[in-house]
Amino acid sequence: MNPMRDVFVEKVVVHMGVGEAGDKLTKAVDLMKTITGGTPVRSNAKQTNTTFGIRKGAPISCRVTLRGEKATNFLNTALGIVDRRISGSQIDRRGNFSFGVEEHTDFPGMSYDPQIGIYGMDINVVLARRGIRISRRATEQRKLPQKQQVGQEDAIAFLKSGHQVEVL
């Protein structure tokens, strides 16, 4: 088989929205650092929402981007938490997929602490094939051929064979 056709995990983005700045966000950043092993980046609100008491530009969430071995290990752990089941609607036409974990306490080594509370997180996975660089490089940028792009069927096959995930 052609190694250029192999699908791999390009990156995993873990996002935790808490809705407010301060102590709650600081605890979420610490939790994210412990769970993922990466360095969290704070995200700011894009617009004001008076109903929830959110103002534009206020830090309300944090995220971590994992690549390589860390991304694959984290993905295996997270898929185990959701019982290795993903709905077909969670996979987009470009082969990327997302799912949520309702409680951080589901991760190994994590336990409930009343001082912290319970936080959920969104996990977004970007799949790619070798050669994607031609569409992103600065000089002589080219369009990626259709056969080199990852589609929904490719993502389903990757999940079933590589991670033993049942796609519903």
Please state the second-level CATH architecture: 2-Layer Sandwich
Instruction: Give the SSE order as H and E letters.
Output: EHEEHEEEHE
Q: The biggest beta sheet, please?
A: 5 strands, antiparallel
Counted by DSSP, the helix tally is 3
Unreliable spans:
none
Strand order of the biggest β-sheet: 2-3-1-6-5
Keywords:
168 residues, alpha+beta, 50s Ribosomal Protein L5, Chain: A, five-stranded antiparallel β-sheet, two-stranded parallel sheet, 3 helices, 7 strands, globular
Folded structure, characterized:
The chain contains three helices and seven strands. By secondary structure, it is an alpha+beta fold. The protein has one domain (3-167): 50s Ribosomal Protein L5, Chain: A, CATH 3.30.1440. Strands 2-3-1-6-5 form a five-stranded antiparallel β-sheet. The chain has a two-stranded parallel sheet with strand order 4-7. The protein is globular and about 55 Å long. The model has no long low-confidence stretch (mean pLDDT 84).
Quick synopsis:
The protein is an alpha+beta fold and 168 residues long.
Please describe the topology of this protein.
Blueprint (H helix, E strand, L loop, with lengths): L6 E11 L5 H14 L4 E4 L14 E8 L1 H14 L3 E2 L10 E5 L19 E9 L22 H12 L2 E2 L1
Parallel strand pairs: 4-7
Antiparallel strand pairs: 1-3, 1-6, 2-3, 5-6
